[in-house]
Amino acid sequence: MKFFIFKRYKYKEVLGMWLNSKNNIKIQSYQKYENLINSFFNNDLGNTFIKKITNQNIENFFSNLINKNTAISTQKTLFYIVKSSFEYAHKKKMCSYMNLEKIKIKNKPKTIHILSREEQNILENHLKENINIRKACLLLCLYTGLRIGEVCGLKWDDIHFETKSLEVKRTIERIKNNDKEIKAKTILIASTPKSDTSKRIIPIPDFLIEILKKFKGENNNYILSNSEKLYDPRQFESFYERILKKNNIRHIHFHTLRHTFATRSIESKMDIKTLSEILGHSSIEITLKLYVHPSYELKKDSIENLVQFMTTL
Q: Chain centroid to CA 6: how far?
């Protein structure tokens, strides 16, 4: 029988080694993991020697997250960090195998907000008046479901006027600055989309093609800045919020435009597979679960259709 002599490493030390071993991840993901490690493991668990940590310790850690109403997305990422770091530690013979199958992160139903049809009409009418490129890009989000980073990452070369479509190739994000020569705390970067399915081609409505033609710039220019300079998503979100306020529309997050696009698409009888591909999801289930939420109008129409069906028998 073989016996392994484990070196004495505190769990937070192991987490640091695990993180440094992640050579092939995006800098955004690295910073996300780093921030979560610093926020959640400077505690008793982090200061415990890894070989002394039990399944019960880990279960207590996640129970505590639930009691504190920690966001489900954060819990899922923390579970990945814990599971992956223990697998790394076991492979490096720092600890025994840790079975985490009993830990389940339960999804809570999300409350998804969308623009009512009246609000959407008010917003669209305002955007079409004295239109400029920023207003055009808000309309583009309403009719393509683009994320804010994706629309900020569009270059004129990504708009295919001949086929009336756009190609999602990149996204603009703000990340923590690690360059000591730059004083800013954060910097803007252009990176590839979040997944392979996020790289996609989306049809553009005819009326928007005609609008975009009026503002066409150099192919390598970002559409929103009309230059090679990156356009800050926070700046675009501020513009959007001013539009809402000016038109007395309740304050709703920019991502609401994506939710609204998905819901309106379902209301107009678009099939789920098509919608899923336009949104850049990896499966139909994700589209149904996260973005398609029938509005009251759709529910009412469905009931009326049922009544009409029964009365025509």
A: 40
Q: Which residues are within 8 A (CB) of 18 and not within 5 positions of it... i.e. 6 or more apart? A: 81, 84, 85, 88, 89
Topology adopted by domain 11-91: DNA polymerase; domain 1 (1.10.150)
Encode pLDDT of 48-96 as tens digits.
999 999 999 999 999 999 888 888 889 999 999 999 999 999 999 999 8
- Work out whether the CA dihedral 296, 298, 302, 305 comes out positive or negative: positive
Provide the b/e sequence for 252-266 (b: ≥16 CB within 10 Å).
Answer: bebebbbbbbbbbbb
Question: What residues are paired with 188 via a beta bridge?
Answer: 174
Tell me which residue has tokens 């479901």: 145
Cβ proximity of 205 and 211 under 8 Å: no
The CA distance from 144 to 205, in Å, is: 9
Sign of CA dihedral 189, 192, 195, 201: positive
Q: Which fold has domain 117-300?
A: hpI Integrase; Chain A (1.10.443)
How far is Cα 154 from Cα 152, in angstroms, rounded to an integer? 6
What's the predicted TM-score (pTM) here? 0.79
